[in-house]
Amino acid sequence: MRVGRLEDFPLGKVRVVRIEGERVAICNVDGTLYAVEDRCTHDDGPLGEGELEGCEIECPRHGARFDVRDGSVTQMPAVYPIETFELEVVDGQVYVSLD
Predict the structure, then answer these.
(1) Is 15 in contact with 9 (CB distance < 8 Å)?
(2) Residue-wise pLDDT tens digits, 44-94
(3) Do 26 and 87 meet the contact criterion of CB atoms below 8 Å apart?
(4) What is the DSSP letter of 50?
(5) Which of 49, 12, 8 is nearest to 27 (CA)?
(6) Global confidence as pTM
(7) Which of 20, 32, 47, 67 has the greatest number of C-beta atoms within 10 Å?
Protein backbone atom coordinates (compact mmCIF):
# COMPACT_ATOMS: atom_id res chain seq x y z
CA MET A 1 0.00 0.00 0.00
CA ARG A 2 1.27 3.48 -0.85
CA VAL A 3 1.93 5.48 2.33
CA GLY A 4 3.43 8.68 0.93
CA ARG A 5 6.30 10.26 -0.93
CA LEU A 6 9.92 9.79 0.06
CA GLU A 7 10.15 13.44 1.11
CA ASP A 8 7.25 12.89 3.56
CA PHE A 9 9.66 10.95 5.80
CA PRO A 10 12.44 13.29 7.03
CA LEU A 11 15.93 12.05 7.80
CA GLY A 12 16.32 10.84 11.40
CA LYS A 13 12.59 11.04 12.14
CA VAL A 14 9.67 8.67 12.70
CA ARG A 15 6.24 9.12 11.14
CA VAL A 16 3.26 6.92 11.96
CA VAL A 17 0.86 5.86 9.21
CA ARG A 18 -2.28 3.71 9.22
CA ILE A 19 -2.43 0.69 6.97
CA GLU A 20 -5.57 -1.46 7.05
CA GLY A 21 -6.31 -0.19 10.57
CA GLU A 22 -2.78 -0.93 11.84
CA ARG A 23 -0.40 1.76 13.06
CA VAL A 24 3.00 1.46 11.40
CA ALA A 25 6.04 3.58 12.29
CA ILE A 26 8.16 4.57 9.29
CA CYS A 27 11.72 5.35 10.38
CA ASN A 28 14.27 7.19 8.24
CA VAL A 29 17.77 6.02 9.21
CA ASP A 30 20.48 7.77 7.20
CA GLY A 31 18.21 7.90 4.14
CA THR A 32 17.00 4.30 4.38
CA LEU A 33 13.37 3.75 5.40
CA TYR A 34 12.21 0.97 7.72
CA ALA A 35 8.65 0.04 8.69
CA VAL A 36 7.88 -1.42 12.13
CA GLU A 37 4.79 -1.93 14.23
CA ASP A 38 3.95 1.14 16.31
CA ARG A 39 3.67 -0.87 19.52
CA CYS A 40 6.19 -1.68 22.22
CA THR A 41 6.06 -5.36 23.13
CA HIS A 42 6.63 -4.49 26.79
CA ASP A 43 3.44 -2.50 27.44
CA ASP A 44 1.93 -1.54 24.06
CA GLY A 45 3.49 1.94 24.18
CA PRO A 46 3.45 4.04 20.98
CA LEU A 47 6.94 3.66 19.50
CA GLY A 48 6.26 6.40 16.98
CA GLU A 49 6.28 8.90 19.85
CA GLY A 50 9.73 7.73 20.93
CA GLU A 51 13.20 8.85 19.89
CA LEU A 52 15.05 7.40 16.90
CA GLU A 53 18.78 7.17 17.56
CA GLY A 54 20.72 5.56 14.75
CA CYS A 55 18.96 2.27 13.99
CA GLU A 56 17.22 2.11 17.37
CA ILE A 57 13.81 3.38 18.38
CA GLU A 58 13.05 3.93 22.06
CA CYS A 59 9.66 3.50 23.68
CA PRO A 60 8.69 6.75 25.44
CA ARG A 61 7.11 4.91 28.38
CA HIS A 62 9.84 2.75 29.92
CA GLY A 63 12.84 3.09 27.61
CA ALA A 64 12.73 -0.29 25.86
CA ARG A 65 14.72 -0.11 22.61
CA PHE A 66 14.42 -1.97 19.33
CA ASP A 67 16.52 -2.21 16.16
CA VAL A 68 14.27 -0.99 13.34
CA ARG A 69 16.19 -3.05 10.76
CA ASP A 70 15.09 -6.42 12.18
CA GLY A 71 12.83 -5.66 15.16
CA SER A 72 15.21 -7.15 17.72
CA VAL A 73 15.25 -5.93 21.32
CA THR A 74 18.36 -3.91 22.14
CA GLN A 75 17.38 -2.75 25.63
CA MET A 76 14.99 -4.11 28.23
CA PRO A 77 12.40 -4.04 29.75
CA ALA A 78 11.03 -5.49 26.49
CA VAL A 79 12.04 -9.09 25.80
CA TYR A 80 10.08 -9.79 22.60
CA PRO A 81 10.95 -8.26 19.21
CA ILE A 82 8.64 -5.94 17.31
CA GLU A 83 7.23 -6.84 13.92
CA THR A 84 8.88 -5.38 10.82
CA PHE A 85 7.25 -4.89 7.44
CA GLU A 86 8.46 -4.91 3.86
CA LEU A 87 9.00 -1.40 2.54
CA GLU A 88 9.81 -0.38 -1.01
CA VAL A 89 10.47 2.98 -2.66
CA VAL A 90 9.47 3.17 -6.34
CA ASP A 91 9.83 6.41 -8.31
CA GLY A 92 9.85 8.43 -5.07
CA GLN A 93 6.70 6.75 -3.72
CA VAL A 94 6.83 4.70 -0.50
CA TYR A 95 4.97 1.38 -0.28
CA VAL A 96 4.55 -0.89 2.75
CA SER A 97 3.21 -4.43 2.80
CA LEU A 98 1.78 -5.96 5.98
CA ASP A 99 1.93 -9.49 4.49
Answers:
(1) yes
(2) 999 999 999 999 999 999 999 999 999 999 999 999 999 999 999 999 999
(3) yes
(4) S
(5) 12
(6) 0.95
(7) 47
